[in-house]
Amino acid sequence: xxxxxxxxxxxDAINTSPNDWIVCFILVIFLGFWGVHRFYVRKIGTxxxxxxxxxxxxxxxxxxxxxxxxxxxxxxEGRQIPYNNTPLINPTPVSTNKSNRVDQNFNVNVASELRExxxxxxxxxxxxxxxxxxxxxxxx
Length: 140
Prior knowledge:
Layout: H1 8-14, H2 21-31, H3 36-40, H4 44-57, H5 59-69, H6 100-122, H7 128-139
Helix pairs in contact: 2-5, 4-5, 6-7
């Protein structure tokens, strides 16, 4: 089996949940007793349990509230849901042997960065030339 060499920052980017922290936090505040935040992160089984126990009589809800507020809550795959979901780097493999998971995460991150650049251009924060330069860097 071939091994892909990734930097610690790249591993952190891969282990970051695609779920949005603010959405999860709002769900736990307003609908936490019914476990809606757990459905959001695809923890369906525990979400159903929270419905029938009213958030573990409030105890389970309170624990989840603290975990989400401190960005320690994790999704079904065990990935952390951080305050800022925008990765600082693109998770590209260092070696020439690429795994499908890394390629998929790379494509998702490039697409999200292109969307962000486009919105910055549309808002007038960056110029068209800066947008084209950054786009070329991302796609190369």
